[in-house]
Design goal:
single chain, 272 residues, Rossmann fold, 6 strands, globular
Length: 272
């Protein structure tokens, strides 16, 4: 049931690849809640994914943009304001990719050129995006920005590789921009640390099934589904969270603050 939480608002959603993507579900829900949106992704991702199917469903224009290129981002914001008829009220950063992880390079044996790409695509793109939004004066007063993160920014998860470093940088960028944009335009910036989620990106991580199962066992509420992460994003885009900013918000069924569960104790002691 829609509640009109985003009625009259305009937004840009990045990273919707297919129906498993959190960004895809955010787009669907934002549309249902009354927002007008623009969809964007890198040209290569657009060729691989199904973004045009989503665009038809939510009646949104698609603007291709490489988030590692300033000129592409400037064009994205300028064209988005034209198509939406005004400045942007909300922005979702859902961009992440590691060549090292994709090609099975362990954290202690990284290819540093690929490492730079990981940081550029998965974290610096967030800074570039907000700097471009400021440069083009694209964000509306009192707007909201959300980026998707993961608890590997704080804890070691073998197999997550250099993406953990990227997520730590992403969260730091969110805090810093939250200060500057908050002081300037009352724009709030937050990151959401989501449960392991069965997306195309997640499936590309070695041992992801183990991450997922462990988190499911450890979380009192179980892993948070992508649909519920989308709902959380919508609350942060809405006017109900005008004073929430510079936070890394865990949306993980309680995993981040659970020390141990009886089920995990039984498995560790062999008393299942």
């Amino acid at each position: 049931m829609a509640h009109g939480l985003l009625k009259g608002k305009r937004g840009i959603i990045t990273g919707a690849l297919n129906e498993q993507s959190i960004a895809w579900k955010v787009a669907e829900l934002a549309h249902a809640e009354g927002a007008s949106i623009v969809l964007t992704n890198a040209p290569v991702a657009m060729r691989m994914g199904e973004i045009n199917k989503l665009a038809d469903a939510v009646k949104a224009p698609v603007i291709g943009a490489d988030a590692t290129k300033d000129e592409d981002l400037d064009k994205l914001f300028q064209e988005s304001m034209e198509k939406l008829g005004g400045k942007v009220d909300f922005l979702l950063h859902s961009i992440g990719m590691s060549p090292n992880v994709r090609k099975g390079k362990a954290y202690d044996d990284l290819n540093y050129e690929w490492y730079k790409q990981t940081l550029d695509i998965s974290a610096m793109s967030f800074h570039r995006m907000l700097q471009s939004a400021k440069r083009t004066d694209a964000l509306a007063e009192g707007g909201s920005v959300v980026a998707l993160s993961y608890i590997a920014a704080q804890r070691v998860f073998p197999g997550y590789g250099d993406m953990a470093d990227a997520k730590a940088l992403l969260e730091s960028i969110g805090r810093s921009w939250g200060y500057y944009l908050g002081m300037e335009k009352k724009v709030r910036v937050n990151t959401i640390s989501q449960s392991p989620t069965m997306t195309t990106a997640g499936a590309g991580i070695k041992g992801f099934g183990g991450f997922y199962g462990f988190a499911q066992e450890m979380s009192p509420l179980g892993n948070a589904p992508a649909e519920d992460c989308a709902k959380y994003c919508i609350t942060l885009f809405s006017d109900f969270t005008k004073y929430v900013t510079m936070q890394n918000l865990f949306h993980d069924g309680g995993f981040s603050t659970t020390g141990v569960t009886p089920g995990m104790m039984a498995k560790a002691t062999g008393e299942e």
